Amino acid sequence: MASKPFIALATTVLFFSLIAVNHFGKPFHGKLGEMEIVPITDAVGPESVAFHPLGDGPYVGISDGRIIKWQPNEHRWISFGITSPNRNHIAVVLSGDKTGMLLKYEQESKQITVLLTNLSFPNGVALSQDGSFLVFAETTKCRILRYWLSTPKAGNLETLAQLPGFPDNIKRSPRGGFWVAIHSRRCKVLSWILSYSKLGNALIWVLPVDVITKAYSVMSKYLGSGLALRISEEGVVLETLELESGNKMSSISEMQEKDDHLWMGSINMPFLGVYRL
Description:
Elements lengths: L3 H20 L7 E2 L3 E4 L8 E3 L8 E3 L4 E6 L4 E7 L6 H7 L4 E6 L6 E8 L2 E6 L5 E6 L4 E6 L8 E6 L2 E8 L5 E8 L2 H7 L2 H10 L2 H15 L3 E5 L5 E7 L8 E7 L2 E6 L4 E6 L1
Parallel strand pairs: 1-16
Antiparallel strand pairs: 2-19, 3-4, 4-5, 5-6, 7-8, 9-10, 10-11, 11-12, 13-14, 14-15, 15-16, 17-18, 18-19
């Protein structure tokens, strides 16, 4: 069993590392105004947002493993499906896990092909406008990667954009490029902590994952900030948005643009945020 001094040290390191994730770093420019709130009862974390091609939705995945669908005429959510409630993303980042993969599923043959391995927390996938490449976030390394599907570059992997924080989901914007949700900022202190995977694994060994996750969620509500970037297909920043100080939304996990509205999800909040462009 770990000694009390070691537990105290681990707790202190965890505390300051979580503050570093959310609080430090230079502010961005480009403010968003008032936000409409679509509340979710008895759950938190509308992490991802999707719409049916025919216009139904949005559909969101929440922390208890359910997928729920918004009924605009009735102003309520209904259950749509069930997935896994496990969300140990903090442990994945702290441990320096590199077991992530990029997979391809063929609908006709129902075959799964492994395209890439040894990825550090791959997150979100979006196709380019012409379908020649896809992009996804490598969360732990704070970057967006591009994987070519066609053209002479097919099969090549390259860094499309290096980001100032930890990206979550990525979605194509109808105005061009991609929206990248920045879950939280990264600073030199956190970069140092993450450069030593043994330290992160020690924290996970000493403190239960649910304790780490709960501590992070609580602190994010007070220290988190909502950030999102719209980048071009060449990785150039087209738009940078930051929620105003005191806004209820923190730790953005999704930015979905539809019909001149931005739908924003967060793993920590019990609601979906909506902005009119």
